[in-house]
């Protein structure tokens, strides 16, 4: 696994700021997966959460960012492409008592709500560009949404996508962050398909019961 140190603290901080039988119900219906995976897009190496409960493969030729000297709250792992135009960010959503109660009440939708609330608190002015969706990937239930800075210049608007999931005891977010705005909508779809490829590789995510697609 290639490891390198990038002095991207300001860029990462700004982009991440702009850019979890647990559930009793799901607030929204489960839909078809919004993005298909890209076959062969991932390397053979894995990233892991610090506790080892989550593992997944990251894209080929992407490099791990050394975040040990960068104060990124709740961020566990960061990978970036060779052009430094995109970042793959694994974060943990703190499991407070209030948050757990909202998850028990509202299901997966609560993960998306909490994720966006935390981002908005760090960087006011963010907007949801695609509302939260709940779908399955390889038998695992996840929620997702897309967000961006509220700005008039649509050509240079950076749009990020966050995918939320749980192990049953912990709650996580895996996000694709744009350092540079995608050249066009087709490129952005490819970026988010790449994220979905990583999501498909995840191990440790709570699985959906075959008899009930709205709970674990």
Present the secondary structure layout.
Elements: E1 3-4, H1 9-18, E2 30-31, E3 42-48, E4 55-59, E5 63-65, E6 75-80, E7 86-93, H2 97-106, H3 109-122, E8 126-137, E9 140-149, E10 159-166, E11 171-178, H4 185-201
Parallel strand pairs: 1-5, 2-8
Antiparallel strand pairs: 3-4, 5-6, 6-7, 7-11, 8-9, 9-10, 10-11
Helix pairs in contact: 2-3
Structure description:
- This protein has helices spanning 9-18, 97-106, 109-122, 185-201, and strands at residues 3-4, 30-31, 42-48, 55-59, 63-65, 75-80, 86-93, 126-137, 140-149, 159-166, 171-178.
- It is α+β, with helices and mostly antiparallel strands and 216 residues long.
- The chain has one domain: Protein Transport Mog1p, Chain A, CATH 3.40.1000.
- Strands 1-5-6-7-11-10-9-8-2 form a 9-stranded mixed sheet, sandwiched between helices. Strands 3-4 form a two-stranded antiparallel ribbon.
- α2 packs across α3.
- The longest helix is centred in the C-terminal third of the chain and has 17 residues, at 185-201.
- It is globular and about 40 Å long.
- The N and C termini lie far apart (34 Å).
- Residues 1-27 and 210-216 have low confidence and may be disordered.
